[in-house]
Write a structure and sequence with these properties.
The protein is of the alpha/beta class. It has a single domain, classed as Rossmann fold, CATH 3.40.50.9100. It has a 5-stranded parallel β-sheet, with helices on both faces. Helix 4 links the parallel strand 3 and strand 4. Helix 2 runs parallel beside helix 5 and helix 3 packs parallel to helix 4. The protein is globular and about 35 Å long. The protein starts with a strand and ends with a helix. It binds 1,3,4-trihydroxy-5-OXO-cyclohexanecarboxylic acid.
Length: 142
């Protein structure tokens, strides 16, 4: 099995930005935890981060053939990108929506996810561990 961990805008600033919300670990630290779990589960994981909507859409399209699942933290695009939603709907590959923070306990605009209806499920509020839970969820699903 091969999974893609796809992170959207500002996630490259994890560990630097709003530490009280997103924690002190960097995206590289999170990748390390995911790599360790992937090894334990005997699966392959690739990582991609972009601050650009179109680049994320290209990766989702590529995931249609190359991957058994996608773990997606779309950042703020979650709340308004119909283009990312359509890209998820366009592929057969299951996508799990992840948020580091509990988006429901924050500003009103974060309570809406336009991608949730086309995702397999959503994990939010468990910090970086959410990515690990998503990987386990994908593994147990198939
Ligand atoms: C986030 C939550 C979003 O609302 C925010 O725009 C992010 C990160 C999270 O991981 O908690 O950039 O997706």
């Amino acid at each position: 099995k091969r999974y893609l961990v796809l992170n959207g805008p500002n996630l490259n600033m994890t560990g630097i930005r709003e530490r009280g919300v997103y924690g002190t670990g960097t995206l590289e630290d999170i990748y390390g935890e995911i790599r360790a779990l992937a090894e334990e589960l005997g699966v392959e994981v690739d990582f991609y981060q972009s601050n650009y909507e179109g680049a994320l859409i290209d990766q989702l399209h590529a995931a249609h053939e190359g991957y058994d699942g996608v773990i997606l933290n779309a950042g703020a695009y979650t709340h308004y990108s119909y283009a990312i939603r359509d890209a998820i709907a366009a592929i057969d590959t299951p996508v799990v929506e992840v948020h580091i923070s509990n988006v429901h306990a924050r500003e009103e605009f974060r309570k809406t996810s336009v991608i949730a209806p086309v995702c397999m499920g959503t994990i939010a509020g468990f910090g970086p561990k959410g990515y690990l839970l998503a990987l386990r969820a994908l593994e147990e699903e198939e």
